[in-house]
Structures are given as structure tokens and as C-alpha cells.
Design brief:
By secondary structure, the chain is an alpha/beta fold. Helix content is 55%, strand content 10%. It folds into three domains: 149 residues, no CATH class; 61 residues, no CATH class; 110 residues, no CATH class. The strands form two sheets. It has a six-stranded mixed β-sheet, covered by helices on one side.
Length: 373
């Protein structure tokens, strides 16, 4: 069992659980902390998992909207339950049903992008349709909507498979994302004081940090060291102004160094994700222009007339640029993610900043790790 020292303890998880599940637990010993310390996506660990009432709760704090959350939570779930099977010496190949705690996946959103109070993400949204053509998809749909799902002429097994498939129940993972920014889910925040205090803390840190940057001027060239110093100051100010009767202030003061380090790490991850997007877009635009010119020239030569050549080049540039930009963004992001994971896996995390800043060095690392589009 993991120690109860997660930074997520700031939520006082038992109070959050009570509010979200209409329970009234008041004994912290009712909770068994099961947080997986070695489960990493990028550099973010599974924030908190705990068992109570035969429910395995997975809580995560996010500052970005990530539609792949169900897949990530599924990875956490699989690894944790595999550990449960090993530690409890459970026989999953026996003839008796093995009972496991029911999972519950909750994400607390604290980012700046405007989102609804509550959003639901399902793993089924990520599943691709079978078949490689529209005809295959249409044929599948035709079978799926057969009257009363009788599927005349098909075996009973076919009916059962298609019925389960129509309800997308082969694998079901649902993540509920709760927006805990100011002005959102106010009834939830009022019902759970630790959660409201955490929401205020995050908003105040953001406000103090932005104010410090504005004081230097909009066009100021702020170094990473200076930005980290301003963010550290913002964290300390946000904690200082918390009321004396705060339920989480004591924890924050005791763990101040860890809280500051957590915020700095969190901020670096947000910045890294922005760089992924920027580099992906740049590569996509360059590739799109190149493909557009090539396709345009080919079409233009085939036409053999000046008018046809001009039209072909224009069409090629437009279509090639759009397709190239989309594919380039995806390829660029995937390459960067693969590189950062490779550096961390090989104990070279300190080189990430240099790799992001120096294109020549980054390209050399791509070659070292055989990372290519």
C-alpha cells in the first residue's frame, strides 16, 4: 500500500468521495490508498487511487482537456488490478468467479480552456470502425439496424455479438471530468470545502503568476529560471492568503517544498505540450507546402495547358497543404512524445529542454533512437 503522502491528499479524498457518492464516511482508516507510483504518462503519475466501499477510485487533476483520458485510466486500471491479482494470489483461470472492486474514474479539470461543468469521455469513442471502406462501414450498419436485431439467417452467436457491439459493451471505460474552476460546479465546491479551497488555490496561483509576468512587460524575454522564480512566489503568496480555518492550508505549509516542486513540474508539462503542438504545426505546414507544390506540378503537367497547370497547382497546393499539415502535426507530436519518453527511460531527462530548444540536437536524438515519421 502506498503511503498517504500524495500531493492529492490536499483534497482530503474521503470528503470528496462522500460528496460524489452520497456517503458519510468520517474515518480515514476506511480508505486504502492504492496509488501507483510507477505508472507514467509523459511525466505525470497516476495522481491518486484508493479503495473504499468495494469501489476502486481513480482521481486525477488535469489542466488540459485530453480525450484520451479513458485509455490512460484503463492503463492505470489494468496495471493496478494486475498487481492486485499477484499480491492476493488470485486464480483468474479457476472455475469460481473472482470479485474485484468496481472502478470509478474521476478527473478534476483546472485548466484555462473554457469547458462545461461536467464532461463525459468514453473509451468507445476511440475505437475505429472495422473495414477499410465506406462500403464496409455501411454494410456493418445495415446489419446492426436489422428489425428487432433478429438478423434473419445468422446464427444466435451473431445476434449476441452484434447486440453487445451495438451497445459498445465489449470494453466500457467512462471518465467523468469535473470543471473545478471558479464559476463552475459551484454546488459541488460548496458541498466539499477541501475541493473549493483547492480550486481557489489553483486560481490564485495562476492570477499571481500572470500578474508577475505582466509587470515585466508583454514583450519581456523571460528566462525559464525567472519564470520558475515567479511561479514559486505565486505559490507561496496563494498559500499565505488562505484563511486560517482552511482545511488544507496546514498540509500545504508542511509540504511547501513539495507543493512548489509539483507546481513547477506541472507547468513544465503544460509548456512541453504547447511545444509539441507548435512543432507539429510547423512541420505540417512545411510538409504541406512541399507536397502541395509537387502534386500541383504533376497535375499541371498532365493537363498540358497553361490554364490547367495553374488550376492543378492551386488545387494541389490547397489539398496538399491541408493534408500535409494535418499529418505533419500528428507526426511531429508523436515523434516528440516518443523522444521524451526515450530520454526519460534511458536516464537522460535533463536533456529534454535542450532537445526542445535546439533543432539540430533534437534531430540527432531522433536518429540515435531511430525515431522517424
Amino acid at each position: 500500500m502506498a503511503e498517504k503522502n500524495s500531493a492529492f491528499n490536499v483534497f482530503q479524498e474521503i470528503k470528496v468521495y462522500n460528496v460524489l457518492n452520497a456517503k458519510h464516511h468520517d474515518n480515514p482508516d476506511d480508505i486504502e490508498i492504492t496509488t501507483m507510483e510507477d505508472v507514467v504518462y509523459m511525466s505525470s503519475k497516476n495522481d491518486l487511487s484508493f479503495k473504499i466501499d468495494d469501489v476502486m477510485n481513480f482521481y486525477e487533476s488535469q489542466s488540459t482537456v485530453n480525450p484520451n483520458m479513458p485509455f490512460r485510466f484503463d492503463l492505470y486500471f489494468t496495471k493496478l488490478y494486475n498487481s492486485f491479482i499477484i499480491n492476493k494470489d488470485v486464480n483468474i483461470y479457476g472455475t469460481i468467479v473472482t470479485h474485484f472492486p468496481e472502478p470509478e474514474f474521476i478527473c478534476f479539470y483546472e485548466g484555462v480552456q473554457e469547458v462545461d461543468d461536467i464532461e463525459v469521455f468514453k473509451l468507445s469513442a476511440a475505437f475505429e470502425k472495422s473495414g477499410n471502406s465506406k462500403a464496409a462501414t455501411d454494410a456493418e450498419s445495415e446489419v446492426m439496424v436489422a428489425p428487432d436485431c433478429q438478423c434473419a439467417g445468422y446464427p444466435k452467436a451473431t445476434k449476441m455479438v452484434l447486440d453487445i457491439k451495438s451497445r459498445k459493451e465489449f470494453v466500457t471505460v467512462t471518465v467523468v471530468m469535473l470543471n473545478i474552476n471558479r464559476g463552475h460546479n459551484e454546488d459541488l465546491l460548496e458541498a466539499c470545502k477541501p475541493l473549493k479551497e483547492y480550486s481557489d488555490l489553483v486560481c490564485n496561483i495562476r492570477d499571481f503568476h500572470n500578474k508577475a509576468k505582466k509587470e515585466l512587460g508583454e514583450n519581456a524575454n523571460i528566462s525559464k529560471e525567472e519564470d520558475n522564480r515567479m511561479l514559486s512566489g505565486a505559490v507561496r503568496k496563494a498559500i499565505e492568503i488562505m484563511p486560517k480555518d482552511s482545511l488544507i492550508k496546514g498540509f500545504l505549509v508542511r509540504e511547501l517544498a513539495r507543493v512548489v516542486d509539483m507546481c513547477l513540474t506541472h507547468y513544465d508539462e503544460e509548456k512541453t505540450m504547447r511545444l509539441f503542438m507548435e512543432e507539429g504545426e510547423a512541420k505540417g505546414e512545411a510538409k504541406g507546402r512541399a507536397e502541395g507544390r509537387a502534386e500541383g506540378r504533376a497535375e499541371g503537367r498532365a493537363e498540358g495547358r497553361a490554364e490547367g497547370r495553374a488550376e492543378g497547382e492551386a488545387k494541389g497546393r490547397a489539398e496538399g497543404r491541408a493534408e500535409g499539415e494535418a499529418k505533419g502535426r500528428a507526426d511531429g507530436q508523436n515523434m516528440l512524445i516518443a523522444l521524451i519518453n526515450a530520454l526519460k527511460k534511458n536516464g537522460r531527462a535533463s536533456e529534454i529542454d535542450l532537445a526542445l530548444a535546439d533543432e539540430e540536437y533534437r534531430e540527432d536524438l531522433y536518429r540515435q533512437y531511430n525515431i522517424a515519421q
